[in-house]
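[step 3/7] inverse_fold.run input=structure_tokens len=149
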């Protein structure tokens, strides 16, 4: 069954708005219970069945899901309590969305490896980072600079 164009457009717009609201909310109000629900090794992956370059509005919806997944993995890794680092693997970094969000939220300085389209980040918990990140509450937190890096 095909979805009418207007319904598809409305769905994509709603998804983009929801992702924007989620990001804005989580940037301003950390949720301390989320890191405790996180497994030790989050994997940011493409939505099931996603084609490599979906057409039109499907591309916007696909990008919104990918952006939300990368940001969520970064936020949860930073908010984690405990001693160990969090390993985050991100694939399809040859896509602009993944690359831009990885550089902005997972941070180049936390990247420990790369193989083809797969990047590996090792993010220390907030308890070991007094370096000005948003999680540590230092310089860079909310002042317009890159708060995650």
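[step 3/7] decode complete -> sequence:
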């Amino acid at each position: 069954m095909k979805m009418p164009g207007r319904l598809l457009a409305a769905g994509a717009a709603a998804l983009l708005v929801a992702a924007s609201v989620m990001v804005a909310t989580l940037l301003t109000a950390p949720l301390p219970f989320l890191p405790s629900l996180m497994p030790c090794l989050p994997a940011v992956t493409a939505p099931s069945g996603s084609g490599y370059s979906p057409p039109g509005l499907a591309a916007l919806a696909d990008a919104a899901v990918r952006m939300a997944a990368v940001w969520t993995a970064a936020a949860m890794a930073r908010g984690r309590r405990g001693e160990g680092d969090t390993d985050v693997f991100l694939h399809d970094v040859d896509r602009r969305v993944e690359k831009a969000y990885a550089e902005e939220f997972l941070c180049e300085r936390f990247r420990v490896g790369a193989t083809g389209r797969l990047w590996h980040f090792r993010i220390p918990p907030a308890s070991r980072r007094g370096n000005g990140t948003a999680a540590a509450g230092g310089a860079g937190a909310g002042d317009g600079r890159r708060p995650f890096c």
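[step 4/7] annotate
Residues 5-136 form one domain.
The chain has a mean pLDDT of 67.
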